[in-house]
Write a structure and sequence with these properties.
Length: 272
């Protein structure tokens, strides 16, 4: 689905953003925030909600292109790379937000679910960054936002791969930021706590203390994220009390204690 992609349907001075995982939740709210700030956007996801999200975003009059792609596959990532690379405008903002989880005891989860989690949260992030950021560096300008998580700061029993992948994203974003510090391209890591999105339902995590607990508003998380990205900050921890408390615990506790704390809130009711 393509909306308003041709130059005559948008201002000549358009700024262009690519947002992954943008059919709902934080990704959709980030796309909305960017549209409200005058950006043309390319949104991507693999589910049926994507076209609905694109129509909603395009109601603002901004150009919106929806690229449906499964980013757990190399073919899906290359589909997005091709679309972004052949867009009318160069990519000014790259939001690597798409993510998933494979909750449960690692010995019980399906291998394909585990591999898909790594593929989406790690491999796709590296692949898209490798293909799209060099052009930003060549032009000497650009903003990159990587959605990590407060979970990046501690091991997460019953969601081991998710936390490990988010730790990768945080480390990758910080390292890449340092490498690009003199290029005009900034990299910002977003570290939200539990947020009111479809994540817990989609990942069958509603039967956990974390899933039943209070959550931050996705629109507020998105605004904080975009503000921090345009300010060139290295990372943003969403400013709810719970998220800040988790960040403090993640910085001071030893690893076994961190695992125990996170395990207590992420353990499903049906796990002994």
């Amino acid at each position: 689905m393509t909306l308003d992609r041709t130059p005559e349907k948008a201002p000549e001075s358009s700024r262009y953003a690519v947002v992954t995982g943008a059919s709902s939740g934080i990704g959709l709210e980030i796309a909305r925030e960017l549209v409200d700030r005058g950006y043309q956007v390319m949104v991507t996801a693999e589910d049926d909600q994507l076209e609905t999200a694109a129509r909603e975003l395009s109601a603002t009059g901004r150009g919106v292109e929806a690229v449906r792609a499964d980013l757990t596959t190399r073919e899906g990532v290359e589909t997005l790379v091709h679309a972004a690379s052949t867009a009318v405008w160069p990519v000014d903002v790259l939001v690597l937000n798409a993510g998933m989880a494979a909750p449960g005891r690692f010995v019980d989860t399906a291998l394909q679910d585990d591999l898909d989690t790594v593929a989406l949260n790690v491999t796709a992030v590296v692949h898209l960054a490798k293909k799209l950021i060099p052009e930003m560096v060549r032009r000497g300008e650009g903003r990159v936002l990587v959605t990590s998580s407060i979970a990046a700061l501690m091991p997460a029993p019953y969601n081991a791969l998710y936390a490990a992948s988010k730790s990768f994203e945080l480390s990758f974003a910080e390292a890449l930021r340092h490498e690009l510090k003199d290029t005009g391209v900034t990299v910002t890591a977003l570290m939200p706590g539990p947020t009111d999105t479809e994540f817990f339902r989609a990942n069958d995590m509603e039967d956990t203390p974390l899933g039943r607990g209070p959550k931050d508003d996705a629109a507020k998380v998105a605004k904080d994220a975009v503000d921090a990205m345009f300010a060139g900050k290295d990372k943003v921890v969403v400013h709810s009390f719970k998220a800040k408390a988790q960040a403090v615990l993640g910085s001071v506790l030893p690893l076994p204690a961190k695992a125990a704390v996170h395990g207590a809130v992420s353990k499903p009711d049906d796990v002994e």
